[in-house]
Amino acid sequence: MDVSTVRQRLKEIVGDRYVLTSDVDLMLYGYDAYLEMSRPDVVVVPESTEEVSRIASLAYEAGVPITARGAGTCLSGGPVPLKGGIVIHFSRMNRILEIDAPNKRARVEPGVITLDLQTAAAKRGLQYAPDPASQKTSTLGGNVGENSGGPHCLKYGVTTNHVLGLKVVLYDGTVMDVGGKAFDRPGYDLTGLMVGSEGTLGLVTEITVRLIEQPEAIKTLLGIFETIEDAGATVSAIIAEGILPATLEMMDKLIIKAVEESLHAGYPQDAEAVLIIELDGLKDGMERLAERIIKICQANRVREVKVAKDAAERDTLWTGRRGAFGAVSRLRPSYMVCDGTVPRTKLPEVLKQVGAIGKKYDLPIANVFHAGDGNLHPIILFDIRNEEETARVRKAGTEMLRSCVDAGGTISGEHGIGLEKLEEMSFIFSRDDVATMWKLKNACDPAGQLNPGKVLVPVSS
Fold first, then answer.
1. In the chain, at which end, N or C, are there fewer CB atoms within 10 A of the end residue's CB?
2. How far is 410 from 415, CA to CA, in rounded Å?
3. Residue 379 within any structural domain of the chain
């Protein structure tokens, strides 16, 4: 079936208005926040599970690849249509179907913005805990695909810890329901299988998540440090004391400079690092817990600890952290984010190695990351128009991930594998491991049409 016929058949499914074929549209849907670009043959914007099912059935009949897409905030090339074909954009499937407050559950479509669900839950005294920095624009479907985290993942876990059920369209258009509102359903954990699979096993069209009670009290502190090593040591010391903050977020001097020039969050530009420490829970005992945190910071040579006096000051501190990735555009035209995870006690050691790798390749490195769970985000700054510099960036990123693995960590905490880390999968998985994953992929997608070229590299004979 040729491209023009596929486009016409898609128009019959969703209507002319929701099939995009212009050069501008195809270019815009050909990239995310990673370094690669690849144009699809057509973009389709369905409104329902039924339409997604019909699109998948058509693609299977025509032998055309499908790539699912949310808001395009992915940092690893996940929604880049590497083999062309159909991009399914879920922006019209953006309804919150149910907030079941008594049972602390919600059902949403994949195009729902993360912050919109959080806002709707908050009106009922509830909270959807996963909070990626891109929460103002990222979608729940994208969060599910990448198993996104965020600052609160230290205490509350990542997306997979909050997804209870999914409606999934399979490669041939079959619609499958997995999981549901109840915990501990019998049988294989197909919900867990789909979360983090980056659209390579199925197309998610409905998501059931758990909600939690909002905390009685929140206390946010900003620790200011003269060295990034002292800030890292403070993180380990807090956890070692048996304290589990809601968040432990670190930013280094280069990020602080970019954030202050852009957002004026009140971070001191002469500091080498700042640590955002947020506590939440019962009101009773909160002040005593904050005092313990301050003493731990002082024992690790903190220069100053500022405590947010109210919600407005807390929001200002978080505006800086959540806007950090956007703010670095003031420093260089392009950036690539490495997303490795290490044991907390290895943070100071690996941060030194990251700095050394930056010097080796003559590349500036800015650090902003979820320090509490050891999830590093070295931001390599460069100009993508410079091919030689871009090549150095790729090599530096690979070496940083190798450092994480050598320290007992892994190659991704929340940004996924996508195109970025295909070769680096060999750092943590054997040939037999990858071959087993391919058996699973082939069982779920025998024609290899769902987001081809992502997550797994072919196993050579």
1. C
2. 12
3. yes
